[in-house]
Amino acid sequence: MSVGRLRSALNGGLRHALAYGLAGLVVLAALYGLVFPETMVGDLLRLATSKSTLGAALRLAVPIACAAVGGIFAEKAGVINIGLEGLLIISAFTGVFVTDAVGSVFSIPGIWVGFVAGVLASTLLSLLFAVVCIKFRADQIIAGLAVWLIALGLAPFAATVVYGSVNTSSVGTLGTWTIPVLSELPFVGPVLFDASPTVYLMFLVVGGGWYVLNRTSFGRHVRASGENPKALDTAGVDVTRVRYLAITLSGVLSGIGGVGLSLGQVGQFIGNGQTMVNGKGFIAIVAYLFGNYNPLGAFGASVLFAGLDALQLRLQQIPAYAVPSSLVQTIPYVTVIVVLALVGHTRVPSAAGDHYESGED
């Protein structure tokens, strides 16, 4: 065995050992909390598994999971879209702005008109990104950063022009949809079946994304476009068309995540600092890498990160332990760093980031 392969094997073994070790520590801590419920660990376990925390975790996972599935489609097709953050920002703002600006259209409530408008805005911005990367062969990383920076500057600026502040007016939220009978099931009922409609949309996005990628001809074309575009071209499939469709789909799904944040949770757009999106698009990239480009795995990672975010919000409300709020707020981000360090098994599509034109050798 060569030195390089030996080093790679050792690094992979070390990452797996660390991952299993951390998982074991979590399991032991949970068991300790169950046996000794009056301890601090018991309090944390009870807080982490409460209905309110789990419900909040699902709501907070919506923008991350939807953007992650969108990112999977783009990168599986061979285009690295790190502009997911920008797509979330532009859709979040547009959804609120249109909701506030228009009433009902053809008896459709204004908030749903805003929802569709937010998704459309994200889709159009993703199409611009696609044209720049595919037609003009721009560097995909730089183009993705440009999408983020454009949205980061444009949305607060537009809010300032219209509302006199980087924060918009409140327009209300989509509320919750309660499913009869199922919502009355013990424990899982209130969490899964008495939730925002965006949570149900997230389940649809994740399940539908997995099905399309693994059970349809379009999904096979997407995978081939990112692995061996030359072979796909030889088979008579237009690689450029597949990549345009995949990037457009990433814009649609990210748009659902963005308006799911503004209209599904907050009811307004907050443009301070990094805006209300606050890095969720970049966390979505970590989520699909951690999930190894599988929508189901990306969903699990999204719920993990969102759950930690929900947990830190609730920990700040418990003064008994006197943990500094600034320290508590770092929990989700420290977890992201740990996950990035342990993600060693992810296999990036072979042609991701490469340009391709029909007829190229």
Automatic annotation (TrEMBL):
<feature type="transmembrane region" description="Helical">
    <location>
        <begin position="186"/>
        <end position="213"/>
    </location>
</feature>
<feature type="transmembrane region" description="Helical">
    <location>
        <begin position="283"/>
        <end position="308"/>
    </location>
</feature>
<protein>
    <submittedName>
        <fullName>Sugar ABC transporter permease</fullName>
    </submittedName>
</protein>
<dbReference type="GO" id="GO:0022857">
    <property type="term" value="F:transmembrane transporter activity"/>
</dbReference>
<feature type="transmembrane region" description="Helical">
    <location>
        <begin position="112"/>
        <end position="134"/>
    </location>
</feature>
<dbReference type="InterPro" id="IPR001851">
    <property type="entry name" value="ABC_transp_permease"/>
</dbReference>
<keyword id="KW-1003">Cell membrane</keyword>
<feature type="transmembrane region" description="Helical">
    <location>
        <begin position="141"/>
        <end position="166"/>
    </location>
</feature>
<dbReference type="GO" id="GO:0005886">
    <property type="term" value="C:plasma membrane"/>
</dbReference>
<feature type="transmembrane region" description="Helical">
    <location>
        <begin position="244"/>
        <end position="263"/>
    </location>
</feature>
<keyword id="KW-0472">Membrane</keyword>
<keyword id="KW-0812">Transmembrane</keyword>
<dbReference type="Pfam" id="PF02653">
    <property type="entry name" value="BPD_transp_2"/>
</dbReference>
<feature type="transmembrane region" description="Helical">
    <location>
        <begin position="86"/>
        <end position="106"/>
    </location>
</feature>
<feature type="transmembrane region" description="Helical">
    <location>
        <begin position="56"/>
        <end position="74"/>
    </location>
</feature>
<feature type="transmembrane region" description="Helical">
    <location>
        <begin position="320"/>
        <end position="343"/>
    </location>
</feature>
<feature type="transmembrane region" description="Helical">
    <location>
        <begin position="17"/>
        <end position="36"/>
    </location>
</feature>
<keyword id="KW-1133">Transmembrane helix</keyword>
